[in-house]
User: What shape does this take?
Amino acid sequence: MLFSNKDISDYYNQTLNHYTMWWKLSDALAVHYGIWLPGTKTFVEALQNTNREMVRNAGIRAEHHVLDAGCGVGGAAFFLANRFGCKVTGITLSQKQLDFAEKTKQSLHEKDLISFDLQDFTKTTFPENTFDFVWACESSCYADPKTQFIDEVFRVLKPGGKLILSDYFLSEEGIEDSQAYIRKWGETWAINNFNTENNFHDELERKEFRILQNLDFTNEITPSAKRMYLAYLFGSIPSNIYNLTHHTSRFAKTHYLSGKYQYLALKRKQWTYRVIHAQKP
Assistant: This one.
């Protein structure tokens, strides 16, 4: 099964209400894993930690322009503009995510620093050498082929610009996928294939990016993965009943299963969660 951009858009359009219900969307503006650090007390704080850890040591300043490639509902854009006073352009494939982000921007009166658009981050309309940073939080996994993402990041970054990325990467066990957990997880999220860390590094080196940091946060996101698994356990019976009694859209119908597959794959060490900084020459 190959997922198109329309499928990816449909997934996020059809499941936005699930993130609102289960992932504290209105409070954290996040559709990513939360990072649980020592002293983290709440799930919302863990979600906010992901932005904080991604940006640590990145060197963003007020004069910089950041592209949020796969911006979701705009949480990182608001975080970056508020913390650094920098300009942020967020792009997504999902109209509902875009509408959510625009509504939030109006309510926060953030009109000058932040903008959002409906675009594919593998073939944007931006001129070459436009951005000082490209931010990609759990979005590069949707690129297919993966080379297109790195090529476009290289094209739109200024010389010396940086890629700030967090994502899931397959281990050797994940490549084998003997129980098909990875494949089934991808099908619930409209992901064609997950990258490996080695392949990602090879693609960066092909474009002569310099890797500045590569940090493993697998243990720190495990409580978030477990939360998703518990949502599957508690939500499976209500979800099946609802599916039987209502007309349910394609991805909304099976979304609850993602909590099962991602967690079982994680417990079997089939994937890791990493934060990577890389610099264009």
Summary: The chain has one domain: 5-279. The chain has a mean pLDDT of 96.
